[in-house]
Amino acid sequence: MCGRYSIFLDPREVAERFDVAVPDDLEPHYNAAPTQSLPVVTNHAPDRVSHQQWGLIPRWADDDFQGLINARGETVTEKPAFRDAYQRRRCLVLADGYYEWQQREGGKQPYRITLPDGEPFAMAGLWERWTPPTKQTGLSDFGDDASDDEETAIETFTVITTDANEFQSQYHHRMPVVLSPDEERAWLGDPSPDMLDPYDGEMRAYPVSTKVNSPVNDSPEVVEEIEA
Asked: Using an 8 Å Cβ cutoff, are 169 and 183 in contact?
């Protein structure tokens, strides 16, 4: 699965790597966690980075719905929470690493998993635009203020997962769908089920501090390698 990741690249590097415009408020995230506002590139705006809340909320959800941080690639075309988004609202979730926890005798040891040289990559994602039901029957329904729903809508996303490749299976039986660079634009434009297969490139993992266990800890110290 994917429950934490990092994206702390220089904005100029993000712009060059993904060929997108980057907002001035792009901030580093060493310990990106669910419910946070994080950078994505959507199929509706493929030329720029935008921010969405991690944890997809379907359009039909109630106010108390818990956001879905992951979607199984094997069932995204079938599950009611994801099938419409798969057809209409796909995104690239920008990252430079993600975290997994390996069970040890003394407890769980977190590892940061990256590409060989720490280069950026995109995880396949889905996004939605959700308006709280309590706001959907406001004045805008009577034509008094067409922007009312616009102001209350929340854009959310989920990371698609698949079976672990051989490398990832040391840490977890699932992994995020890491797209190859030549798949990224195709995912936004004309996706193929083959894109949701396990990543077949080289990867690297190294142990990090258990400070990553708490999203309150979001500093460069979190990504530093430790002895384990």
From this structure: no
- Specify if 205 maps to a domain: yes
Return the structure tokens found at 27.
């901030």
- The residues annotated as belonging to the active site are 2, 100
101 located within any domain: yes
Q: How many domains does the chain have?
A: 1
Alpha carbon distance 88, 71 (integer Å): 15
Question: Domain span at residue 124?
Answer: 5-223
Residues 6 or more apart whose CB falls under 8 angstroms from that of 157 comprise 38, 40, 52, 53, 54, 55, 56, 91, 93, 125, 126, 127, 128
Q: What is the pLDDT along the chain (228 residues), one digit of tens a residue?
A: 689 999 999 999 999 999 999 998 899 999 999 999 999 999 999 999 999 999 999 999 998 899 999 999 999 999 999 999 999 999 999 999 999 999 888 899 999 999 999 999 999 999 999 998 866 554 444 444 444 456 689 999 999 999 999 999 999 999 999 999 999 999 999 898 889 999 999 999 999 999 999 999 999 999 999 997
Tell me, what CATH number does 173's domain have?
3.90.1680.10
Cβ-in-10-Å burial (0-12, 13-18, 19+) of 82 comes to: buried
Would the pTM of this model clear 0.85, i.e. be above it?
yes
Does any domain span residue 51? yes
Question: Residue 103's CB: how many other CB atoms inside 10 A?
Answer: 9
Q: Are 50 and 38 in contact (CB under 8 A)?
A: no
Query: Does residue 120 form part of some domain?
Result: yes
